[in-house]
């Protein structure tokens, strides 16, 4: 169940330009309006799979099928899948897979993506189908020692029925008219936890490219395309009741669409007074970086209960990771909204 209330407090002159028929007696220099959107949907999912060991401990296959239904799209979708494992050495294996995957749209995701482009009352009447992708994956996994394992995977995804905004006489109404692709690779190294080890954790690097197009826009990066991503997760446990957990993430910035300006820096408008935008998602936000640290201490009490005390700091560097750019009404001033700032937490957990 989704229930969203939007409250507006805007200059009356600007509001009446876009809404000339919505004048009320109580309006003054500022217009106050409230809009409420409600939506309810249900999803169902069923799957069946079975593993067949063609050559025990060497070669196995895993076929499967998944079925999903969403009341939002009012359709069943069927997802055949298949994967295999070929262990050609005792500590090295080749893996591969193929399958159909579906993502049903929901009211919240549509609102977040198109809130600035669609009249709000249209969200309750938009009819969409399920987005589809076909995955192809292959990789190799190697375990040189019992405590260590590493893997390298490559993938390709064929995307179809993507939801994109389609021009109408008044609004950009979402339709399933997009298609695209995604490809990339990931390298992963794991140090397993054990009672004898002081350090454990993993590190990964991924490279990816994700693009889409529709009938009116050329091929371009998708909104959440992230070319490079590095993750490090480590645990330091010098004593059985004391540990330090840390997580670090560094990644390329997401793409965004720039505003067209003349050589003097003035924003450009078309004949209908709408802002002119440049090539879709041709610019990038600054890189993303975040480091979280958590210190934990626990003690087993005499009555068998357990006491846990922890201190955690999110974004310990205090980096201002940009979430979005937005502009003043005349598009001459650009503002920034940010993700989580530095945030300390303290907690106590008591278990009987």
Question: What is shown here, in short?
Answer:
It is globular, with a radius of gyration of 26 Å. With 352 residues, it is mainly β.
How would you sum up this structure, described in words?
- By secondary structure, the protein is mostly beta strands.
- The protein is built from two helices and 21 strands.
- The strands form four sheets. The protein has a 15-stranded antiparallel sheet that branches. A two-stranded antiparallel sheet has the order 1-2.
- A hairpin with a 2-residue loop joins strand 6 and strand 7.
Q: Percent helix among the residues?
A: under 10%
Percentage beta strand = over 45%
How many helical stretches?
Answer: 2
Shape: globular
**Sequence of secondary-structure elements:** EHEEEEEEHEEEEEEEEEEEEEE
Mean pLDDT equals 90
Class computed from helices, strands and strand pairing? mainly beta
Largest β sheet strand count, sense and barrel closure: 15 strands, antiparallel
Number of strands: 21
Radius of gyration from CA coordinates: 26 Å
Distance between the termini: 35 Å
SSE blueprint and pairings:
Elements: E1 2-11, H1 12-18, E2 30-39, E3 43-49, E4 52-55, E5 59-70, E6 75-89, E7 92-103, H2 107-114, E8 131-145, E9 148-167, E10 172-191, E11 199-213, E12 220-221, E13 228-239, E14 242-251, E15 255-256, E16 283-284, E17 288-300, E18 306-314, E19 322-327, E20 334-338, E21 343-351
């Amino acid at each position: 169940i989704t229930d969203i209330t939007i409250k507006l407090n805007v200059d009356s002159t600007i509001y009446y330009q876009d809404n000339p028929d919505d004048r009320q007696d109580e309006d003054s220099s500022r217009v106050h309006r409230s809009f409420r959107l409600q939506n309810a949907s249900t999803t169902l999912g069923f799957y069946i799979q079975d593993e067949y060991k063609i050559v025990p401990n060497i070669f196995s296959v895993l076929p499967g099928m998944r079925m999903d239904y969403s009341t939002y799209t009012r359709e069943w979708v069927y997802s055949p899948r298949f994967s295999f494992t070929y262990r050609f050495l005792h500590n090295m294996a080749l893996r591969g897979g193929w399958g159909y995957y579906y993502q049903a749209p929901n009211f919240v995701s549509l609102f977040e993506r198109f809130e600035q482009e669609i009249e709000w009352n249209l969200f309750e009447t938009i009819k969409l189908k399920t987005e589809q992708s076909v995955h192809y994956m292959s990789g190799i996994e190697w375990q040189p020692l019992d405590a260590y394992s590493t893997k390298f995977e490559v993938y390709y995804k064929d995307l179809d029925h993507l939801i994109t905004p389609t021009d109408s006489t008044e609004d950009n109404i979402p339709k399933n008219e997009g298609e695209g692709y995604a490809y990339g690779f990931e390298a992963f190294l794991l140090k397993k936890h054990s009672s004898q080890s002081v350090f454990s954790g993993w590190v990964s690097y991924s490279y990816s490219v994700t693009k889409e197009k529709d009938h009116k826009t050329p091929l371009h990066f998708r909104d959440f395309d992230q070319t490079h991503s590095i993750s490090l997760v480590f645990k330091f446990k010098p004593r059985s009741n004391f540990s330090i957990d840390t997580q670090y993430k560094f990644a390329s910035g997401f793409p965004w669409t720039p505003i067209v300006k003349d050589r003097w820096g003035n924003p450009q408008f078309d004949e209908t007074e709408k802002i002119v935008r440049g090539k879709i998602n041709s610019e990038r936000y600054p890189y993303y970086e975040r480091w979280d640290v958590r210190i934990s201490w626990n003690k087993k009490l005499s009555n068998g209960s357990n006491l846990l005390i922890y201190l955690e700091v999110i974004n310990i560097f205090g980096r201002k990771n940009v979430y979005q750019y937005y502009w003043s009404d005349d598009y001459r001033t650009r503002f920034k909204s940010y993700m989580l700032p530095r945030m300390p937490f303290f907690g106590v957990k008591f278990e009987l």
